[in-house]
């Protein structure tokens, strides 16, 4: 029997940090795919807080290694305050992105809440990309490739300070799963900072179950588990609606196992759903799949698990 959970949906309709337009339509696609109804059917109490507001996308080239830095800061500040407010009120926030640069605002809010509540934090970063670039390393200047580095204290002052503490998180709190596209300079930086990465080769060799057992190891009753789910984590054959498709991602069954094992811990207390791009999708297929997987995060399984 799952506990009644109080969930708040927060839309962040922007593609400000991305290299392709369209993720700004992600929140509405998730609503059209029935995320609210699906969670209510799982016994959750759901409030849709609507969409946050922020600057429009000026679609400019990078300046000093960053595209749209001022606009990215504004959006992340809005996300930070919205997510932090829900956590403070004892609710489980689901951030509907928007591109993955917004993970910075979301996770910095979770880290702030954990500091104040005396909780440990574990972050699962489900993504094709490590998102550990800096302005020196990035080939594009797109800030959706930088949020993990910013959270770990590597980035422009305006972004790294959003959570009120620098760094917002310790790299040891993150487990990256499904990674299969990392820029050359970024690879070295990931190793230098000793991020724990379960890339697709690891999942191919050891299986999703083993990867998830390690990623979820040592969680206890005082751990807040945050899941940052970039939809490009999934194989593009099943999830075409993303701006940066990288072949060779988890299959439907691997993704389901990943989500069900997270649900089994009973510890997930906040969630990001990022980079859904309906402009590149086929009949909202990717949003429908994302809702299906989110249902599994909230306890849907084939049979009751004893």
TrEMBL record:
Cofactor: Mn(2+)
The protein's enzyme class: hydrolase
Pathway membership: Nitrogen metabolism; urea cycle; L-ornithine and urea from L-arginine: step 1/1
One function term, GO molecular function aspect: arginase activity
Presence of keyword Metal-binding: yes
Keyword Endoplasmic reticulum: no
Name this protein carries in UniProt: Arginase
Natural source organism: Roseateles agri
């Amino acid at each position: 029997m799952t506990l009644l959970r109080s969930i708040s949906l927060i839309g962040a309709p922007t593609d400000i940090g991305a290299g392709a337009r369209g993720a700004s339509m992600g929140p509405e696609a998730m609503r059209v795919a029935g995320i609210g109804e699906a969670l209510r059917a799982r016994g959750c109490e759901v409030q849709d807080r609507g969409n946050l507001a922020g600057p429009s996308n000026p679609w400019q080239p990078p300046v000093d290694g960053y595209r749209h830095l001022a606009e990215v800061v504004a959006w992340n500040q809005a996300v930070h305050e919205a997510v932090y407010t829900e956590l403070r009120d004892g609710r489980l926030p689901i951030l509907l992105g928007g591109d993955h640069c917004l993970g910075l605002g979301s996770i910095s809010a979770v880290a702030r809440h954990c500091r104040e509540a005396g909780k440990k934090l574990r972050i699962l970063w489900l993504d094709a990309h490590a998102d550990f670039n800096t302005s020196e390393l990035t080939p594009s200047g797109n800030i959706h490739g930088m949020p993990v580095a910013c959270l770990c204290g590597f980035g422009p002052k305006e972004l790294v300070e959003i959570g009120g503490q620098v760094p917002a998180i310790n790299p040891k709190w993150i487990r990256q799963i499904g990674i299969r596209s990392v820029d050359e300079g970024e690879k070295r930086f990931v190793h230098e900072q000793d991020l724990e990465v379960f890339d697709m080769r690891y999942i191919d060799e050891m299986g999703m179950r083993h990867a998830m057992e390690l990623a979820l190891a040592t969680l206890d009753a005082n751990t807040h588990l945050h899941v940052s789910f970039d939809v490009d984590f999934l194989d593009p054959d099943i999830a075409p609606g993303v701006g940066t498709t990288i072949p060779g991602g988890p299959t439907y069954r691997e993704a389901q196992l990943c989500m069900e094992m997270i649900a089994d811990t009973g510890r997930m207390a906040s969630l990001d759903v990022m980079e859904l791009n309906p402009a590149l999708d086929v009949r909202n297929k990717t949003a429908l799949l994302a809702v299906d997987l989110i249902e599994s995060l909230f306890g849907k399984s084939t049979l009751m698990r004893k």
